[in-house]
Write a structure and sequence with these properties.
Length: 196
Amino acid sequence: MRIGLTGGIGSGKSTVARCLAELGAALIDTDAISRSLTAAGGAAMPAIIAAFGPEAQSPDGALDRAFMREWAFREPDARKRLEGILHPMIGAETRRLEQAAAGSPWIVFDVPLLVESGRWRQRVDRVLVVDCEVQTQIQRVMARNGWPCEAVQAVLAQQATRAQRRAAADAVIFNEGLELAALAHEVRQLAEQWRT
């Protein structure tokens, strides 16, 4: 079984992904792939520097994410240009990892922009959405990343709405006010239900 896992920033999607991996799923994290491509020496960095200039590279050689966020807010097509570089590379690595996990009974694709891309619904058997209130997302990201409220809101504005994600879901885990053990229990119950 191939499961597409998604959720807005700060929803708890990464925690659910870890729970699924602990239950034996092969996890393919497209965000982690993106981070490795844009790390110092990452395969995408030469093309990014060619497209956006040397300022796109931080002193340690990785993508300067704050610079790119700022650019994307000023220039709407900047995000599309960056995605045009990254998405084919992420796709190729995702396919490679999927082939490597072919013996696994189930594969979880952790895809933050699953709904936005429009391509993933056909690639997976089920879509699992991790959801919570927008105010909770904002508070979690501010606490976790140290971002100002406006920066979190700007990211949220570029993502699918809660309603759009829920409409695409085969199942929703509402991660509001749940302790880690309760969240893990919900994930376990859903995994057992889907496996049978």
